Amino acid sequence: MRGIMFNLYFLCLQSLNEALENYNVPIEIVDGFIGQITVNIPWSALVNDNTKMEISNLELTIQPKQRKDSAGTQKTLMKYHEYVQHVSYCWFELVESLVLLPTLPGDIASSI
Predict the structure, then answer these.
(1) Who wins on pLDDT, 104 or 91?
(2) How far apart are CA 39 and CA 62, in angstroms?
(3) Domain ranges in the chain?
């Protein structure tokens, strides 16, 4: 027997977030959607065959969890944020230099 469900929105995010909290996962789920769940149950051979479940088009919106008791986590997030800003700045500088490259004098541009 095969059953299919379409377009499911997560309604009980609190339970999912509590499970993540129990495992000290530093994120929380804000929103979720499943495009399709297909379940195959082999009723005639239930003892011998496996029940199969397929989830398609899973979308999750997550965000970092703010922990009241963990100053270390906040420091790590701040350092990560600073690192991302630095990498973004370096990337911007590189792209800007490549965009300006054609405006260089011919002898300098041809040597690059």
Answers:
(1) 91
(2) 26
(3) 1-65, 67-105
Q: How far apart are CA 93 and CA 100, in angstroms?
A: 11
- Helices (H) and strands (E) counted in the chain, each on its own, are 3, 3
Q: What is the pLDDT of residues 47-75, one digit of tens each?
A: 899 989 888 888 889 999 876 655 666 77
Report which DSSP code applies to 107.
H
Angstrom distance (rounded) from CA 103 to CA 87:
25
Type of residue at 43: W
Q: What is the DSSP letter of 84?
A: H
Tell me the β-bridge partners of 30: none
Could you give the 3-state DSSP secondary structure of residue 35?
Answer: strand
Tokens representing residue 11 in the block: 């309604």
Beta carbons within 10 angstroms of residue 90's beta carbon: 10
CA distance 1 to 106: 72
